Structures are given as structure tokens and as C-alpha cells.
């Protein structure tokens, strides 16, 4: 009789799993719009929410994952804080503008039917590692959507890092050789290496005064942290030898802090993360409310329902294309007399930091507007 475990492995083998660091994605989205935040007609800042949805759809449309999940941190301390009370002590507090958007971002996850997993006492990295190793054991192709170097330690033949880039630049996919090229060591040596160097982003101390270059030389000489601490007296450089001699306990603590917990007691298994189509009604309701009409059309292939559109948009409209100098002068003259003006921009990308302007719309009254093309190649000449 074939075991259930073997059946599950055969079912999942070769499938793709994308585990997304939710906190990293939110921060990336927030700071992409930091100079020009998106504010809807009700005065609600929707920048981070829009950026997260846009990033998710880029991954989904580009990669078409078989399985997918968002993995998030919680605000409560983790087991690492209990080990070292200064862990992540140098991190800035989450901006209030991000905090108020957290419920909206969760609503977006729900509408897109992407599970969001978190567990008090553990970091997102630990949950990602637990799920990634489970999936790897089933011969799945796992992609960790993050740039956190802590995740280097679990990269294997089935697990890779998927690092998003700006604009239309393809993501960087990092495998074992990629880790070797970046750090000079393979994934299995990352924990000992970081025990020596520490991690400034998480306020992990490491051995004071030992940077990546020195740590790499020590790894080449001793092989791992334990052997270094046992045989440090053979280090030729007196200064380095003294630093190691004085830092045994802090080095061992640092290694514990950077080592991922790959056995987090989460309720979900990989098989629970199968990709599902968006909930059309939830997407339609939420994105109309947030005024993400372009994303609404992209995801559902439709615009907002008529009853969700303001009455002024249902009136007979007079929209004009301004493509001559004479017409442009008339528009400028008219707008100069207006008490209020609404304008909007058309760009060639949803990425705010890399988008190029292709046109501007102006309106000074209900149901009348003009569009001025700037970067349309078909109108050139």
C-alpha cells in the first residue's frame, strides 16, 4: 500500500511555491511612493496598499505560481528578543502612514485569496524557512521573495531567493552558486559566517571588529565558528586573535540569533497554500472603494460597476484630445480663469520611481476635460 506521504510528495513534486516576506514588500511599497503618496478622493493614503497589490500581481502574472503565501511578522517580541534584549533595538518604528494601511492590505490579501501566515513569538523568516524546507522535501521548486540575507542559509537545490527589482527589470534569482558569488561561502556556512560578522540591520553584534573579509579568511582557515573558537591561538594576526579571544560568548549568541528556526509550529502545511483565483466580488468592492480602477480592470478585466461610479461620471461627458498648439493655448487661457482645476497624469508604468510621463489630463468643470499627449510615439512628427 502506498503511504499518504508518498502520494503527497508525488502530487507536489515539480510544483512552484512562492513565499513572500510581507513586511519587506510593504516597506518597499511604502517607500516607493514616499515623495508622492497616493491619496484617494476621501483623503485616504493608499500608497502601501497599492504598491503591495501591484507587486503581488507582477509576481502572479509573471510567474504563475502553483502555490503562494504571504508570510508576516507580528508586533510581539520573538524568542530572539528573550535571548538578547537588544535584538533589532536599532530598528525605526513603523511609520504611522503604514500602520493605518495594515487593515487595507489584509483586505487586499483576502480579496486576492492569498493566505497570510504569522505566528506570535516567531519571525516571518522562521515561518518561511519551515515551509520552504517542507516543500523542498516534497521536491517542489521554492522561491523566497525577499532580499534578507538570513535566508541564504536554507538555499538548496530546490530553494532559491527571488529578489524583485525596480520597474520592469527582471527579478534576481539566487541559487547556491549565487550565495557563493556574493559572500564567498555556500549556504551551509552562512550561520557561522554571520556569527562572526553579526548583522547590523538586526543589531546582532558578532565579533567586534571582524568584518566580512576577515570572517571569510577565518572560515577558510578554520572551517567553522566552533573550530575557530577552539583554535584561535593559531591566528597569526595578534589583533584578530585578541578580538576572537575576547568574544567567545557574543559570537555563540550571534550565531543563535541568526540561525533560522525551521520547525515553527504553524497550523498550515504547503498543501494549504494552493493558488486560487481572486474573489471577484471582494476585489470589485475593495478596489472600487480604494479607487484602484486600473488594477481593478487588470485583475478582473472590467471597470467599476456603474452604481459605484459617482453621479458626475454618469453625465454626458465632453472629453477632448489637445494635439495642436492653437488648441493648447485655448486650454491654458481657459484654465487660467478657473477657480479650481483637477488634473491627472498618464505614465508608461505603475512603478512611481521609474515611470515616464506620457500625458496630462485637465478639468475645470463637471463632465468636461482635455487630454494633452506628451510621450505618445504614435503622435510624434
In short:
The protein has 381 residues and is of the alpha/beta class.
Features:
381 residues; alpha/beta; four-stranded mixed sheet; 41% helix; elongated
Q: Flag low-confidence runs.
A: 306-315
Largest sheet: 6 strands, mixed
Distance between the termini: 74 Å
- N to C succession of SSEs: HEHHEHHHEHEEEHHHHHHHHHEHEEE
Q: How helix-rich are the residues, as a percent range?
A: 40-55%
User: How many strands?
Assistant: 10
Biggest sheet strand line-up: 3-2-1-4-5-6
Please state roughly what percent of the residues sit in beta strands, choosing from under 5%, 5-15%, 15-25%, 25-35%, 35-45% or over 45%. Answer: 5-15%
Count, helices: 17
What is the mean predicted local confidence, pLDDT? 89
List the helices and strands and how they pair.
Layout: H1 4-12, E1 16-21, H2 22-32, H3 47-63, E2 67-71, H4 79-83, H5 96-99, H6 102-112, E3 116-117, H7 124-137, E4 141-145, E5 159-163, E6 172-174, H8 176-183, H9 190-197, H10 212-222, H11 225-231, H12 238-245, H13 248-258, H14 280-290, H15 293-300, H16 311-314, E7 318-321, H17 325-335, E8 342-347, E9 357-365, E10 368-373
Parallel strand pairs: 1-2, 1-4, 2-3, 4-5, 7-10
Antiparallel strand pairs: 5-6, 8-9, 9-10
